[in-house]
Design brief:
Elements lengths: L10 H5 L22 H14 L5 H17 L10 H13 L4 H20 L26 H9 L11 H16 L3 H4 L8 E3 L4 E6 L9 E4 L3 H14 L25 H14 L14 H12 L4 H8 L4 H7 L4 H10 L13 H20 L1
Helix pairs in contact: 2-3, 3-5, 4-5, 6-7, 7-9, 11-12, 12-13
């Protein structure tokens, strides 16, 4: 064990003490199949994480907190009682408690690491965490906005074709509209520059340039193919932007500009989005978490419902893997009902109704040809 984990001041010293309020005979005093108490196994695991895996003390302490919380919440008295149902129940409880996806993902990582070590140490015969899915599987609400919610959010109360007279309000509206249409990540919004905005005569649309985009080997140009949103960006950049940008060359700068000339910070963009969805009257609907990233999920879901192929959606969102795109696509119950009516798997695709007007014209043509032949 490394020097950091030895003694009462290290991580191991801190985790070796029972949780405050934990009853005697609980997880702190339980015995594993090989005779180690729960705390002894945790202490050995800490040494392994620090000395072998090179984990930082803060990361190790966080891992240990997760395991202790798992044991307390799921009433696990012995390490051998840890099962898949126990792990799944704990991950679901984190979602019900409103924990962020990043927090739940970190908990899953800690659980997987502990179970893997427990198998090697002989405390578990099999690894129950192998069947544990990612955190998105344990969410009840599809993380996507409806088309009407997005329309209210990005076009405001007056609808498409209007920009608010207030400079800051106009900036925020264009920011949200462009973020949705281009599938932007929160870190990409503030990095947009005016010299990257271009007009395409052949398409009659504006485009933006993403520099150093996530997992991109080169700069990526994204054309805003929605006419209304493209027009909003053009109006903003050519007319409204200069009135309050203070000389900043960022597409979405702070009011009055900034000394660095940079655009809005990700935290500020998230604040803009939070104010906007609350002002638009969008509700959480149960346990749905509404963050800026929901715009990308909504774009993928809406494109899927409009009949786009998954490969096209992957290119729209700039994904390298189709599997990543599939996680962004969410099917609502209303769409399932419509699909069952129109494309029942037992009956095949429902045939469209006949074109009565086309049949009438065909019959009239045939009848006129028959009469003409008879008269001749």
């Amino acid at each position: 064990m490394s020097s950091r984990s030895s003694g009462g001041g290290g991580v191991a010293g801190r985790i070796a003490r029972p949780r405050q309020g934990m009853p005697e005979g609980g997880a702190a005093e339980s015995v594993t199949p090989r005779g180690h108490t729960f705390d002894e196994l945790l202490e050995r695991w800490v040494g392994y994480l620090e000395a072998v895996r090179g984990r930082r003390p803060a990361t190790v302490a966080r891992y240990v907190r997760v395991v202790r919380q798992l044991a307390a919440d799921q009433a696990v008295g012995q390490v051998e009682e840890i099962s898949f149902d126990v792990l799944e129940g704990y991950v679901k409880s984190l979602f019900y408690a409103g924990r962020a996806a990043s927090t739940r993902a970190a908990a899953v990582s800690a659980i997987r690491a502990f179970c893997e070590y427990a198998v090697v140490a002989g405390a578990l015969e099999a690894n129950p965490a192998l069947r544990l899915a990612g955190v998105r599987v344990y969410q009840e609400e599809p993380p996507a906005l409806t088309q009407s919610e997005v329309t209210r959010l990005i076009f405001g109360p007056r609808g498409p074709g209007w920009l608010p007279a207030d400079w800051r309000a106009a900036r925020d509206q264009v920011l949200l509209a462009v973020s949705y249409a281009a599938g932007l990540r929160v870190s990409e919004v503030g990095a947009l520059r005016l010299d990257g905005v271009a007009w395409h005569e052949d398409l009659e649309r504006w485009s933006i340039l993403l520099r150093a985009a996530k997992r991109a080997e080169a700069d990526v140009r994204v054309v805003l193919r929605d006419e209304r949103i493209s027009r909003m960006l053009g109006t903003w950049c050519t007319t409204v932007h200069a009135k309050g940008a203070g000389g900043s060359r960022a597409v979405f700068p702070a009011a009055g500009g900034s000394s660095s000339g940079r655009g809005l910070a990700p935290r500020t963009v998230a604040t803009v989005f939070r104010r906007a969805w609350r002002a638009a009257g969008i509700e959480r609907r149960g346990r749905r978490r509404i963050t800026f990233h929901i715009l990308r999920h909504s774009l993928a879901t809406h494109a899927h419902e409009a009949g786009w192929e998954t490969k096209a959606i992957a290119r729209l969102l700039r994904h390298r893997s189709i599997k990543t795109t599939e996680r962004y696509i969410h099917t609502r119950d209303e769409r399932l009902d419509r699909l069952w009516r129109q494309r029942n798997p037992l009956r095949g695709r429902k045939k469209p109704p006949p074109d009565i007007h086309h049949l009438g014209r065909a019959l009239a043509t045939d009848l006129s040809e028959i009469l003409e032949a008879a008269s001749g």
